[in-house]
């Protein structure tokens, strides 16, 4: 399963373009944040990193 993450800085901006692109790439679940880039707490990103479907693979 592919998961995605979309973020915009202010509520006036839309996530639609990012969501469409992620869906076209096959993302079945999309996590979202609407907050400034200077904010270090991002609940959507935290959910991605905690999601068991998320894994980072290293090639050796």
Fill in the keyword field for this structure.
60 residues; alpha+beta; two-stranded parallel sheet; 2 helices
What would a concise description of this structure say?
The protein has 60 residues and is of the alpha+beta class. It has helices spanning 16-24, 43-50, and strands at 2-8, 27-34.
Task: Write the topology of this structure.
Layout: E1 2-8, H1 16-24, E2 27-34, H2 43-50
Parallel strand pairs: 1-2
Beta-strand content:
25-35%
DSSP helix fraction: 25-40%
N- to C-terminal distance: 23 Å
Largest sheet: 2 strands, parallel
State the order of secondary-structure elements, H for helix, E for strand: EHEH
- As residue ranges, the low-confidence spans are none
Q: What's the assembly state of these chains? A: single chain
Overall shape = flat
Can you tell me about this structure?
Helices cover 28% and strands 25% of the residues. It has helices at 16-24, 43-50; strands spanning 2-8, 27-34. It has a two-stranded parallel sheet with strand order 1-2.
């Amino acid at each position: 399963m592919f998961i995605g993450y979309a973020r915009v800085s202010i509520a006036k901006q839309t996530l639609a373009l990012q969501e469409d692109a992620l869906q076209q790439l096959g993302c079945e679940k999309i996590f979202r944040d609407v907050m400034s880039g200077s904010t270090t707490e991002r609940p959507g990103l935290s959910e991605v990193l905690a999601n068991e479907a998320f894994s980072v693979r290293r090639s050796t």
